[in-house]
Amino acid sequence: MAPKTASSRSIHLPISAFSGFYARVADRLNVDPSYVIRVALGQLQSEEILQAMEREMREITDNLKAKHDRSNRHGAHRNRDNRSGADSDMNEDRQILIE
Fold this sequence. Notes:
The protein is mainly alpha-helical. The protein has one domain (20-98). The protein is built from 6 helices and no strands. Mean pLDDT is 75; it is low at 7-11 and 93-97.
């Protein structure tokens, strides 16, 4: 099996985390998602919607950071245990890309 590169591992994860963003905010506030979108675009104003979007964004970024930290911890152990000669240089380069 080919090793996963930084791009094959990380490209779709952050994008998928934002899927349904407006719908989740709308569900929490019991409003229509189109209303949330219009507030996000600046067509309407609502402090309550903006605060809910900020909370949702914080939750997403916190979750992504936690996943990133967990994968780095596991990756660091794996790289440390498998180092030998030129392979260790390649592993160090790959680790830098992921961080």
